[in-house]
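Thread: Newbie trying to understand structure tokens

Hi all, I'm a second-year student working on a class project, and my supervisor (Dr. K.) asked me to get a predicted structure for one chain before our next meeting. I've only ever worked with sequences, so writing a 3D structure as a token string is new to me. If someone could post the tokens and maybe explain what I'm looking at, I'd be very grateful. Here's the chain:
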Amino acid sequence: MTQTTGRFFVRKTLSDVRLDEGMGLKRALGPWQLTLLGIGCIIGAGVYVMTGVAAANYAGPAVVLSFALAALSVVSTALCYAELASSLPVSGASYTYAYAALGELAAWGLGWMLSLELGLAGAALAVGAAGYLLSLLQDFGVVVPAALSTSFVQAIPGAHGVRFALGGGINLVAVGAVAIFAAVLIRGVSHSARLNAAMVAIKIGVLVVFVAFGASHVHAANWRPFIPPNLGGFTYGWPGVLRGASILFFAYLGFEAVATAALEARNPQRDIAIGILASLTVATVLYIAVALTLTGLVPYRSLGVADPVAVAVQAIGWPALTIVIKLGGLVGLCSVLMVNTYAHSRVCLAMSADGLLPSFFCRIHPRFRTPHLGTLAVAGVAALAAALLPIAILGDLVSLGTGVVFLTVAVSTIWLRSTQPELPRPFRVPGGGVWIKGLWIGLTPVVSIILTIAMVGPVLADMIYKASRGDVIPATILVTYILAGVAFYALYGMPRSKLGQVWRDGLVRPAL
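---
Reply by user tm_fold:
Sure, no problem. This is what the structure looks like when written as tokens:
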């Protein structure tokens, strides 16, 4: 193997990883705060926005099945996260796991795609928050011009699916939402955790109210046919159910925010696993209950809007409840936006500490003890995407980024079990595994790999299908982003990598 190839596979030793534990952050989060952090980042756009998109464009009332499929995939990956977080309680979460297990090239690719996932998720959340805010303002007679509240790229539904075209708007309302919560995060993790706890309580309460009041107004006719007949491609039928699951896959990604908080957790070996699994359980139960109520209140084709829960509540005919639900939707999306931005800044902090990103990402504010410049940078990226792109494109790109991250986490779990079987693991994935020629093959990570491929496959297939019909905007964004990542690593990350410098000096060996 050539020296260049070996350079790409150089990895962090476990002692290297644990050196990252002293980065100046404050350990202020216990299991309760971590669970709320996870709920705060999971329950948001998935239930308040993407449920409507998935039901209207792909799955119909069977969006409930889409949620179940997506949850099954995510649970297997969450268990892998919990094991890795219990044994490697450090900043960067999946990025750091990949660096320790698979080497620098895999870590860079995962970190780059993780930034796509979190950056565009922030944008999608901001667009959703803007939609609920605009709807709420209209109830009070305030109308924001479309030029200031719609994205530059427009999603246009049609008989054969959604197509994209250029428009003339810039969503400055969404940009404002990103800016507000970036400022909150800079003030400090303790302030952010208290605000997040309050917002989580509000949004869960509102969703419970929605299900409780909506259940008595459900029209069973709206659930028939439960799986609408396929109209070609991924529009309805079982292909649509699977496509809906690939969209709602995005709705569960927030549990990773818990793993990124390892450096600010008081007892990360125990509490990170608790936070991940507890928050995922609460979110799944709420998602399914809301989806059933939503599709039972109004015809599913009318839900392809930025505020589908508000549209469904209007069918009940209680204006006061409509306003409460819109406020809850706004608060819910804002809480996820805040936690998502938090997670993105911590991933970039870890990559910067390794020399793969500019040093300002890991610069800590002397008073607030937060990565203030990194927070501003990731918020700026999310704001730009929110201003220019519709939520239909954002959701698909986030799902692809999530898929790459999940696959890498599952492979890292297998590799670390195989190469470091003696590593203390307070939490272990269930199901056991078998040893084949020195490689541990675990049931849970293998299931995670298979189901993740099943989730991202329809997204890629649909993107290729649209590109073949001349709708190249989503594919162009994805390819451009990947090429930019290759160029950035070659020109900046690889020459400045701290571990790469040690390797060049002959002090470490590549991990193969």
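A couple of things are worth pointing out once you decode it. Residues 1-5 have pLDDT under 50 and may be disordered. The radius of gyration is 22 Å. Feel free to ask follow-ups in this thread.
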